Amino acid sequence: MPEPVALQTDGLSGPEPEWFSSPGLVDYEEATAFMENRVAEIQEGDAPEFVWLLEHPPLYTSGTSADPKDLLTPDRFPVYPSKRGGEFTYHGPGQRVAYAMLDLNRRGRDVRGYVRNLEEWVIQTLAEFNVVGERRQGRVGVWVVRPDKPPLADGSSAEDKIAAIGVRIRKWVTFHGISINVEPELEHFSGIVPCGIQDYGVTSLVDLGLPVTMTDVDVALKRSFTKVFG
Fold first, then answer.
1. DSSP code string of 89-137
2. Each residue of 20-30: pLDDT tens digit?
3. Residue of 26, 98, 192, 195 marked catalytic
């Protein structure tokens, strides 16, 4: 299990929550073990809230609602069962994962409100790059309209998913969080039906023509977090 001192702050630290950014790729099982430990410390009042920015090596995770048939190529990358809500998700290099370990005892015991705040966090982060991220009823995550692509069979505009959200809460302290596609290999998403949704594609900031770096996204995430969560 990694210790907090092994993480790099990159100028993102604050009094509460603590912010850390890990260089390189972080093993998924090590990350989940760290979250378990940190959440327990937060519950006991032994540590402040924690936001961890990282990238994983290529992998798929299956949430508590995952349908096995949505794993299209089970031997392609490691597959990790996850206790977060949701279905299958891809993580990999070029995708900014932000794990938020927050105390909803202090922030309000409202699960739907928390998920909405995570969505708003992503939406405001994207707005800093002039990207309009939107919610969609019945589709978890954040979406962008793609007028440059052919419309769907029903005549509606094509839309792509740019960010995923997965949440687990124990004793009102949160695990997991969000992932924003900055410059991942989008073809890697073809091994799953992302979040069980077949009719829409996946995009990234670079795919949208924006030469955005991970550092740019980290700065926007920190600024937008303060706006949404205070």
1. EEE-TTEEEEEEE-BHHHH-S-HHHHHHHHHHHHHHHHHTTT---EEET
2. 999 999 999 99
3. 195
Q: Is 215 exposed, middle or buried (0-12, 13-18, 19+ CB in 10 A)?
A: exposed
> What's the token pair of residue 90?
């891809």
Residues 65-94 pLDDT 10s: 889 999 999 999 999 999 887 889 999 999
**Can you tell me the distance from the alpha carbon of 11 to that of 150, in angstroms, rounded to the nearest whole number?**
42
Is residue 97 within 8 Å of residue 169, measured between CB atoms? no
Tokens of 74: 């089970």
Q: Is 5 among the residues known to form the active site?
A: no
Q: Which of 33-37, 70-74, 84-88, 196-200 has the lowest mean pLDDT?
A: 196-200
- Alpha-carbon radius of gyration of the chain: 17
pTM (two decimals): 0.91
Three-state DSSP at 86 gives coil
CA angle 68, 25, 28 (to 5 degrees): 35
The answer to whether the CB of 214 falls within 8 A of the CB of 96 is yes
